[in-house]
């Protein structure tokens, strides 16, 4: 599974903070393995929250805008996890994490949406369903057997 963000992404946003937060206790050097683990864990957490609304196929086919949004969310979640791992969390880092989780939960609840490159879902019964929104319910049923026209006047 590919994480939504890379070390380069998190470094571009928090260069100075990342070095301070992710410095190894013994050597004082940045621990990239723990950063990568934090990014992977953040991506798993994001997928877990969004799984209530999006299938794995939909998450795998997100468009560039949605991937950019998840990259930002992944950076905030990973930075919080990294700070916790190194026992260097702050109120600011925790607040960004809480806001990100809240936004992800809102997307999963239908109060926002991610867009995919998948074609819109259509019926396989031959009927043209047209464009279907992510929160719309689609029902397909066989043709009715007993109709007023077939039964005549009752």
Outline of the structure:
By secondary structure, the chain is an all-alpha fold.
Model description:
It contains six helices and no strands. The protein has 154 residues and is mostly helical. It is elongated. The model is unreliable at 122-129 (pLDDT under 50). This is DUF1320 domain-containing protein. Pfam families: Phage_Mu_Gp36. It comes from Rhizobium rosettiformans.
Key attributes of the depicted protein:
single chain, 154 residues, 54% helix, elongated, Phage_Mu_GpJ, DUF1320 domain-containing protein
End-to-end Cα distance: 62 Å
Instruction: Let me know the average pLDDT.
Output: 84
Q: Give the oligomeric state of the chains in this entry, treating copies of one chain as homo and distinct chains as hetero.
A: single chain
Q: Radius of gyration from the CA trace? A: 23 Å
Strand content: under 5%
Helix and strand string, N-terminal first? HHHHHH
Largest sheet, strands/sense/barrel: none
Structural class: mainly alpha
| Inertia-based shape | elongated
Helix percent reads 40-55%
Layout of secondary structure:
Blueprint: H1 7-21, H2 32-50, H3 56-60, H4 64-85, H5 91-108, H6 148-151
Helix pairs in contact: 1-4, 2-4, 4-5
